[in-house]
Write a structure and sequence with these properties.
- The chain has six helices and four strands, in the order αβααβαββαα.
- The chain has 157 residues and is of the alpha+beta class.
- A four-stranded mixed beta sheet has the order 2-1-3-4, with helices on both faces.
- Helix 2 (61-74) packs across helix 6 (135-151).
- The radius of gyration is 21 Å and the shape is globular.
Length: 157
């Protein structure tokens, strides 16, 4: 009988903690650091960095080339002014070891580095894995993420 009461108390405690977790998790939909539209000044520049692994497959380079085309078509003035930069990084090149470790990059990963004065925020864009072969969706994702961080305009991709 005592064993049942101890188990019952443990279950009640576990259930209480679980309910408390649900209540607090629902109170805030996103962490403050992931919100691009907070009242921040416009960034000095946004750096777009795409990482791929040429040893796995040359096809990993294709989404990066498509991202580059999308940027030239939709953000040509920002690229020309230096407010937006783009870099494709091959993880197999030994010269890229430092930048890969700075971003914590793996193959087929996309990052935005938002620079405001001396402050830098690196934002991962993991959704690229879902759209890497769908170029229309990739265009929407890239355009919306860059607009979100460059101008504070957010649309669902």
């Amino acid at each position: 009988m005592w064993r049942f009461m101890r188990t019952s108390k443990a279950n009640i405690l576990l259930l209480s903690l679980l309910m408390l977790g649900w209540l607090t998790a629902c109170s805030n939909s996103a962490p403050a650091s992931n919100r691009a539209n907070d009242q921040l000044s416009p960034p000095d520049r946004v750096e777009v960095v795409y990482f791929y692994d040429s040893k796995i497959c040359q096809c990993e380079k294709l989404p990066g080339e498509h991202i580059q085309s999308t940027l030239f078509i939709n953000f040509s003035s920002e690229l020309a002014s230096g407010k937006l930069t783009y870099q494709m990084v091959d993880l197999n090149d030994r010269n890229n070891t430092a930048i890969a470790s700075q971003y914590g990059a793996t193959s087929l990963s996309l990052f935005l580095k938002v620079v405001r004065a001396d402050d830098q925020q690196i934002v991962a864009v993991p959704e690229i894995l879902l759209v890497k072969d769908d170029y229309d969706a990739l265009d929407r994702l890239v355009n919306n993420r860059i607009s979100e961080y460059l101008y504070g305009q957010s649309n669902s991709w």
